[in-house]
Automatic annotation (TrEMBL):
It holds the Pfam family TacA1. GO terms for biological process: regulation of DNA-templated transcription. Keywords: Toxin-antitoxin system. It comes from Oceanibaculum pacificum. This is DUF1778 domain-containing protein. Belongs to the TacA antitoxin family.
Length: 93
């Protein structure tokens, strides 16, 4: 969230119909905010939610155990993995 000392130099313009503007004004007034404050706060909440949904992985207890076990006790490399590593090493080495 922006700190009070930060300057706000960027601008976002939105075209909307009269009914949409009226709805936003009503909602903003219920929150005791300006329309700009209301729209920015609401948009930021939704943006953060979308980012969390796409960038955060949540595992159940059993799934976490399987994942943790695979990280702490990985299986020995099989032939396909050894071949892929050799190919990678040759391409990058």
């Amino acid at each position: 969230m922006p700190r009070a000392a930060e300057t706000k130099d960027d601008r976002l313009q939105v075209r909307l119909d009269a009914e949409s503007k009226s709805v936003l004004q009503r909602a903003a007034s219920y929150r005791h905010k300006t329309v700009s404050q209301f729209v920015l706060a609401t948009a930021m909440e939704e943006a953060e939610k979308v980012i969390r949904e796409n960038e955060v992985v949540t595992l159940s207890g059993p799934d976490w155990k399987v994942f943790y076990d695979a990280l702490t006790n990985p299986p020995a490399p099989n032939a396909a993995l050894r071949k892929a590593f050799a190919k990678y090493k040759k391409a990058t080495g």
